[in-house]
Amino acid sequence: MAANREYTHLMLKEIHEQPQAMRETLAQESNRISDLAAEIRRRRVRFIIVAARGTSDNAATYARYLFGAVNGMVVAPAAPSLLTVYGSKMQIEDALVLGISQSGKATDVIEVLEVSRGLGAMTVALTNQDHSPICQAAEHVLLTHADEEKSVAATKTFTTALAALYLLSAYWAERQDLVDAIHQVPEAMEQAFDIEPWMASRTERYRYMEACTVLARGVNFATALEIGLKLAECCYVTPQPFSAADYMHGPIAALEPGWPVLLIAPGGPSIGSMLEVGEALKERKAEMIVFSDDDDALSLATVPMKLPYLGKSYWSPMVTAVAGQLFTYYLAIHKGLDPDRPRGLTKVTLTY
Amino acid sequence: MAANREYTHLMLKEIHEQPQAMRETLAQESNRISDLAAEIRRRRVRFIIVAARGTSDNAATYARYLFGAVNGMVVAPAAPSLLTVYGSKMQIEDALVLGISQSGKATDVIEVLEVSRGLGAMTVALTNQDHSPICQAAEHVLLTHADEEKSVAATKTFTTALAALYLLSAYWAERQDLVDAIHQVPEAMEQAFDIEPWMASRTERYRYMEACTVLARGVNFATALEIGLKLAECCYVTPQPFSAADYMHGPIAALEPGWPVLLIAPGGPSIGSMLEVGEALKERKAEMIVFSDDDDALSLATVPMKLPYLGKSYWSPMVTAVAGQLFTYYLAIHKGLDPDRPRGLTKVTLTY
């Protein structure tokens, strides 16, 4: 358990705090999110816009698949430059504009919320910092309860943000089955930690890996993007994240035998697609690192990363993300890097 | 002129056919696009969804910035897996769903159009192939007139698709000034060819370049993505395309001195952002290849690629794309590769 262990790095400590952060977020936010969902139904929202940067933007990708699949809602990325560079009069009076920033200080996300609110949109801020500037900018606030995140690499603020989005989607759709299901996540995360000794030893193989492809489809595409970002930040590995379908439409041409590809492929609606990609990659002799709870997917791997059963669920990205964080952490250690101090990065980026 | 020159490769020939393809598209499609714009206004479309893969998806990114800036319309990517993998009932009866496929045969784009039409959305196909399957799937058709494209790497079908989107946006907004302005493009493309001898010689420097970052902001972000895709397809260079604002929020941490960065930075609303990124890159001693008509931007370059004046326009991506195609072509030649025969790629990709 997190409480009884000494951690050499903040990042590893915070990775292990995730089941607890998840429990806190579910316990403290469920009622508020249920109320917000009712308000969204009253406002007859027609579509969603999400503004976010970095890790929060990967949470936005999760929102895109989740609200589409569960609520039939189209989710568009905000393109802040439309408001802040081009100064467009966007027609968004029937939109829900969601701004995500763990620190609550991302300047251009705040600006998108302020301008959108002025244009008549319903605005919601999702943040880990109550009373931060983003909470003033938006009409409504969704909080994650991950406590302070000290490591520069976001971990627990990412997975709790996914949980808040999941709850909003489930309550909005009045899907009690989905609301109930998310309570399996903290335990699934704890089971995922069982992979840690294996991960710590097998990542040594990638000591000199300079770049890799990261593939997923559907809700786990968000995880693929997030693992890619973590690898860039903590390991200085050049990531190429792709939706598996997009990857087959071109980039696979550049694949050399031995090229490392991370496949995020838990069971669920997209597993068929992922297995097809996996077969194509195997034929081309790619080095395949497969994160999955599906035996067929794992059997394609050069190095399998076996996850606990994830219920073919919409919440699986919260657990695949944990596995990806562990992979990143141990790879950074093998590379002799300090995962808590990525070169040239600070915790809050104020985008001009 | 294209007509009087012998070309060693189809790709180079087709790059040079672009001014003519552009003139044909503008001449033959303007009336039809004007009528379609009137129909869109009658239908009171509330937002846009674009379905596309590969190069066509980069045209979709152009649409996202263009329809936002000019029409105040939110543009969302289609996420075909929502319809084809998750089978969601999307609420899109007041949406315009635009499917883009040069061949008219992209299976999942066609499926998105068919399903969307069934859900009551207004559907438009943008293609270079009249009477292709996509034309049956959509209610309305926008044609590019680029003739047959024989090279696997899309060039003239990309820039003419941007032109069709530009015209639709301008007519929809009833902006005659924008409609008039696009007629400068064929000549600007011809002027951009003046860079060819310089490009042919300076690209030799990148003979052993294996990866690079490609940056832009606003409408030219589409060009950055497209140049990245061309480099992957024809040169087996691993591209990292980023919106300049996103790049500053994280990935810049991985920058090593000498790392190659292509900046697509023509004059216009986003030039201020691009100059700031350029200064930050210069400080970190990046190798900067700058495509621009702006002297300040060019002065930051390790290798400047000077473009003709692009009028700080929404059409500039059509010309920056030509310069990027030439860069890709000559780099492929220096690398000893055949740009007409990218390894493992075919002209039509049928995404499962």
Give the oligomeric state. Answer: homodimer
- The number of distinct helices of chain A, counting runs of at least 4 residues, comes to 15
Task: Tell me the Rg of chain A in angstroms.
Answer: 19 Å
Largest sheet of chain A: 5 strands, parallel
Q: What is the domain total for the residues of chain A?
A: 2
What is the CATH class name of the largest domain in chain A? Alpha Beta
Order of strands across the main sheet of chain A? 2-1-3-4-5
Please tally the β strands of chain A and state the result.
Answer: 10
Span from first to last CA of chain A? 41 Å
Identify low-pLDDT runs of chain A.
none
Which shape of chain A, going by the Cα principal axes?
Answer: globular
CATH superfamily of the largest domain in chain A: Glucose-6-phosphate isomerase like protein, domain 1
CATH topology of the largest domain in chain A: Rossmann fold
Average per-residue pLDDT of chain A, rounded, comes to 94
Order of helical and strand elements of chain A: HHEHEHEHEHEHHHHEHEHEHEHEH
Q: Please report the two chains with the greatest interface, counting residues with C-beta closer than 8 angstroms to the partner's C-beta.
A: A-B, 62 and 64 residues
CATH architecture grouping of the largest domain in chain A: 3-Layer(aba) Sandwich
Helix content of chain A: 40-55%
Strand fraction band of chain A?
Answer: 5-15%
Going by helix content, strand content and strand pairing, the class of chain A is alpha/beta
